[in-house]
Sequence to fold (230 residues):
Amino acid sequence: MNDICGSFDNAIREISNVLAVTGRVVPVTLEDITLFAELDDGTIIKGESQIPIRQISSNKKIKRVYLEPAECEAMPEALKAIKEADAVIIGPGSLYTSIIPNFMVKGVAKAAHEAAAMKIYICNMMTQQGETLGYDLSDHINAINEHEHSLRYCYAIVNSGRIPEDSALRYMDEYAKPVEIDWDNIAAKGIKVVGDDFVRIDKGYVRHDYNALSRCIFKLINQEQKDSIF
Fold:
């Protein structure tokens, strides 16, 4: 589609039309970029798909991720969308290979920080082999803040529902477990934690119940808008 449409952003628009996507998908950048990760022992890993594979084999924590070229420019449409948003919703997704890299594109974190919109972080249901084993809620947030200090959250949405035992056992083979809420550390950050049962099991895997999650998000946005009026 990139070849047919002449550019990546046009390809995204055409695919969105074909798939009847509700809303608008905007690439964060049109530049060719490569994601790198540095582990605690100084090992450098090149490429998004290689990061979790080599992290697992080395058993070293990810110290940081970075992009090359470092000064890649953001899509103006992406920055505009962030600045005009009612809410900036971050996650869920792979912490080091899906979420953090977006904020490392030049101007994105600044746009999110300066936006009047409320900022909501949606934490993953489970820790992830190759990226976040042993991480609790504050560890996820700290990892983002260590890469971009200016980002401040209003809310963190987390699952407080019970994971079925058979599904939890499936994840134990990867040493993964439900993300725990470390209330004291989160309270010190001034973030309001919203917990609810978002558990949905899809072919044995733990997923967010997108209906319950969307209701929670809209409730927060509506309440915030009412509070701002009064």
